[in-house]
Design brief:
The protein is an alpha/beta fold. It has 3 domains: 187 residues, 2-enoyl-CoA Hydratase, Chain A, domain 1; 176 residues, Rossmann fold; 221 residues, Orthogonal Bundle (N-(1-d-carboxylethyl)-l-norvaline Dehydrogenase, domain 2), CATH 1.10.1040.50. Helix content is 49%, strand content 11%. The strands form 4 sheets. The protein has an 8-stranded mixed β-sheet, sandwiched between helices. α10 packs antiparallel against α11. Bound molecules: (2S,3S)-3-hydroxy-2-methylbutanoyl-COA. (2S,3S)-3-hydroxy-2-methylbutanoyl-COA binds next to β5, α4 and α12.
């Protein structure tokens, strides 16, 4: 054994404890320790059975994901298969005791055991497809033998975990243990010690018939192609499970290993592993140490019950944090509450939440028309109309009514946090918490650091974001922060392309084919074209004279075509908001472009993708250089979780790295020559490209900003 795997004895039952914090990943040394322990129990005649359990908060969360990078850059392929066979062939029965998570290699380890017991709160799953890979240690071969083909293909292709209770109902878990898991597992081990130990790989009662399985696999492939559009791993997982129904176990494992390796070396897997670690990296703020004290957030208030305010109130209620929801009058409050109730009812109807949960959430949302109860709250999130004067008035009120130390946050999507803070006597308690619509759905939360925002307030909001089920990313207080600042050039290029001869549907289709959840024109119609129009009008005075700006969308707004909310925008919408291209808009844009003397031409999908995506990359490089984002990976996580950028491409900055920065830089220089000043290459991009480096190098070489830049 080693210090990662310990052996103790409880009479004639050996307890093998895996102790590799924080999640007992199967890092080098752990499989070796388990193997040595199995050898020991088989050489000790006094041992009747063994229990394998995880120390700390969980069983085994899988293979060590950090090891994959070594394997794909020439390191040895580490296989768990021999260890799992050794366990399964052990002369002494092995009981796996699961709490927390048995994910990936953790579940594969558990299935090599002869029996499995679990705490009711435990979860089991094969989430490998979320990393762009598939189970690589017999998971696609043992799982169907335990739970049947249909459930196994769903678990391996979709990657969603199931509860221990559901696993017990399926026969994957042999007993649920309330209370002391170890004691219960030892008792169970004593009960089965004298019985023949079933080997999972020899089970055949759940394999199904060829005809039944053909229907299952065909349906699974159709679902994967629809719900996981463009992804390699889900289809590979289905192939591997199918091999389990057609090949003997050993050959099935060989087929799985081949498919696993193909996925592991794919760009998609490298991108998804980048995202996995990136979603955890963004929580690390260089100048705010982990031990920074955080403030208690037990009661909050939201000002404004519009779409955003209502959604934000739901976010807190969903996290069991009581929330006051304030409006200016009864009618507005009723409308806001009505929308919240409707949202919960829809989620219940779709089976996403239970009615009990919805009732509990609604019970802790308290509608109010005054600030009377605001003296008790620990934090307020302002979500009123996007106008500076109104926001400053609200913050002046909040400064007056809230207790000292309460956090005053604005949900503004572009306005200056420092100017908002100037309306209070407590700028150190003011911060931006920019939720993304719909707030109760989108995972991203941009946390906007004001010049005077205190480290405690920042640390509190970063920790709170995880409690709210959000991915909190700290950004600087430049106009549009990070996400929206980049979204401007992205949608600007989309509009230019339409004015130069393309059309809304072609632009949107090119980006949906690239992998985006939605195209830029449909996104504008969804959010409301008037939102951007109002901001452009507010900042018109900042536009450099002589620099070409898009005009078609402003014209549509002047015609009252705001998008879905008016059933007409770039597209026409029926009563169910289904879009169809609008020949009138196509004709109007052609006419307007001719009047503006813009030469018309056929535009390829490749150019559409390059113009829109590289506009993101170029602006992202500027933001990095100015220090308004800490790392390139922060920008990737923002775009994946807030703007529907395809995770299997890793985010805009990672995508640029995979395309090669020299090639991206040269393409941007082309656009600079063709389309002028707006395409001037970002200096950081030029430097990295010309030195053969990547944005990942920028992050690694700690060139990343030591702290978020503060507005000059
Ligand atoms: N490998 C390495 N590090 C891991 C890890 C893993 N499998 N899982 C978590 N970590 C790190 C994580 O980066 C973070 O580090 C810390 O642990 C806490 O994680 C062979 C090929 C288990 C539900 O995909 O889903 O097995 O930031 O913040 O919110 O066929 O971690 O502190 O430095 O997420 O409590 C399959 C991935 C692998 C599970 C816990 N397994 N992990 O969530 O903590 S592939 C997975 C999770 C595989 C086999 C295949 C979650 C969690 P740091 P955390 P959490």
């Amino acid at each position: 054994m080693n210090n990662l795997v310990k052996i103790t004895k409880d009479n004639d039952v050996v307890i093998i404890t895996i102790d590799n914090p924080p999640v007992n990943a199967l890092s080098p040394g752990v499989p070796e320790g388990i193997g040595a322990a199995i050898d020991e129990i088989n050489h000790d005649p006094t041992v009747k059975a063994a229990v394998v359990i995880g120390a700390g908060r969980t069983f085994v969360a899988g293979a060590d994901i950090k090891e994959f990078g070594k394997m794909t850059s020439g390191g040895p392929r580490r296989s768990l298969l021999p260890l799992l066979l050794k366990i399964e062939d052990s002369a002494k029965p092995v009981v796996m005791a699961i709490h927390g998570q048995a994910f990936g290699g953790g579940l594969e380890l558990a299935m090599a055991g002869h029996y499995r017991v679990a705490s009711p709160s435990a979860q089991v799953g094969q989430p490998e497809v979320k990393l762009g890979i598939i189970p690589g240690a017999g998971g696609t071969q043992r799982l169907p033998r335990l739970v049947g083909v249909a459930k196994a293909v769903e678990m391996c292709a979709e990657g969603k975990p199931i509860s221990a209770r559901d696993a017990a109902a399926l026969g994957l878990i042999d007993r649920l243990i309330d209370g002391d898991l170890l004691a219960g597992a030892v008792t169970f081990a004593c009960e089965i010690a004298a019985k023949p130990a079933p080997k999972t790989r020899e089970r055949a009662d759940k394999q199904g018939t060829a005809a039944e399985n053909a229907v299952i696999f065909s349906a699974a492939r159709d679902t994967a192609r629809k719900k996981q559009r463009g992804l390699i791993a889900p289809l590979a997982a289905i192939d591997a499970v199918e091999a389990s129904t057609k090949l003997p176990f050993d050959q099935g494992c060989e087929a799985e290993a081949k498919l696993f390796t193909e996925c592991l070396f794919s760009d998609q897997s490298k991108a998804l592993i980048h995202v996995f670690f990136g979603e955890r990296k963004v929580a690390k703020i260089p100048d705010i140490p982990k031990e920074t004290p955080v403030l208690p957030i037990n009661r909050v208030a939201v000002v404004g019950s519009g779409t955003m305010g209502g959604g934000i109130a739901m976010v807190f209620a969903n996290a069991s944090i009581p929330v006051l929801l304030k409006e200016v009058d009864e009618a507005a409050l009723e409308q806001g509450l009505g929308k919240i109730k409707k949202n919960y009812a829809t989620s219940v109807q779709r089976g996403r939440i239970t009615q009990t949960f919805a009732d509990e959430c609604l019970h802790i949302i308290t509608p109010v028309l005054s600030y009377d109860a605001f003296s008790d709250v620990d934090m307020v999130v302002e979500a009123v109309f996007e106008g500076m004067a109104l926001k400053k008035a609200v913050f002046g009120d909040l400064d007056r009514v809230c207790r000292k130390g309460a956090i005053l946050a604005s949900n503004t999507s572009t306005l200056d946090i420092d100017e908002i803070a100037s309306a209070t006597s407590r700028p150190e308690s003011v911060i931006g918490t920019h939720f993304f619509s719909p707030a109760n759905v989108m995972r991203l939360l941009e946390i906007v650091r004001g010049t005077k925002s205190s480290k405690e307030v920042i640390a509190t909001c970063m920790q709170l974001s995880k409690k709210l089920g959000k991915i909190g990313v700290l950004v600087g207080n430049c106009r549009g922060f990070v996400g929206n600042r980049m979204f401007g050039p992205y949608r600007r290029e989309a509009q230019f392309l339409i004015e130069e001869g393309s059309d809304a549907q072609s632009v949107d289709q090119a980006l949906v084919d690239f992998g985006n959840a939605m195209g830029p024109m449909a996104t504008g119609d969804l959010a409301g074209l008037d939102v951007g129009w109002r901001i452009r009008k507010e900042y018109r005075h900042l536009e450099k004279p002589g620099i070409r700006q898009p005009f078609a969308e402003d014209r549509l707004c002047e015609m009252g075509r705001y998008g879905q909310k008016t059933l007409r925008g770039w597209y026409l919408y029926d009563e169910n908001r289904r879009p169809t291209p609008d020949p009138e808009v196509i004709a109007l844009v052609r006419q307007w472009s001719a009047e503006a003397g813009i030469p018309q031409r056929q535009i390829s999908s490749a150019e559409i993708v390059d113009r829109c995506i590289y506009a993101l990359v170029n602006e992202g490089a500027r933001i990095l250089e100015e220090g308004y984002a800490l790392r390139a990976v922060d920008i990737d996580i923002i775009y994946i979780n807030g703007y529907g950028f395809p995770a299997h491409r890793g985010g805009p900055m990672w995508y640029a790295d995979t395309m090669g920065l020299q090639k991206v830089y040269e393409r941007i220089c082309d656009f600079h020559r063709q389309h002028g000043e707006l395409w001037a290459p970002a200096p950081l991009l030029k430097r990295l490209a010309q030195s053969g480096k990547t944005f990942a190098d920028f992050d690694k070489e700690s060139q990343a900003a030591p702290e978020i830049a503060l507005r000059a």
